[in-house]
Specification:
- With about 100 residues, this protein is mostly helical.
- The protein is about 65% helix and about 0% strand.
- The protein contains 4 helices and no strands.
- The mean pLDDT is about 95.
């Protein structure tokens, strides 16, 4: 979901539609896409602009491999932590029901 309120609500959906892609989203984002999303291939539009942006980042000293690795590790940890929380909640509920 969009974390920055200054961004359009579908920035991470509309700009990443393409073959062999998967996108998870909360229900409110899915509803927003159903309401005003544009179901068309966008992931590979303006590749020249994307290459230019990456070159500008590299020129500014930003290592995108490092940034990507950090974001991936953070994302995996958040999903793993949420999964553990889910399992704990299920286990607690199971124990409550078994005791009843």
């Amino acid at each position: 979901s969009t974390k920055n309120p200054a961004y359009p609500d579908l920035i991470y959906v509309d700009t990443l539609i393409g073959p062999h892609t998967v996108n998870t989203m909360p229900p409110q984002t899915l509803e927003a896409f159903k309401d005003h999303g544009a179901p068309m291939r966008t992931v590979d539009q303006d590749l020249a602009g994307a290459r230019g942006a990456l070159a500008a980042l590299a020129q500014a000293g930003i290592d995108m491999d490092e940034v990507t690795e950090e974001l991936e590790a953070d994302g995996v940890k958040k999903f793993a932590d949420s999964f553990v929380d889910l399992l704990n909640t299920i286990d607690e509920r199971r124990k409550e029901l078994a005791a009843a």
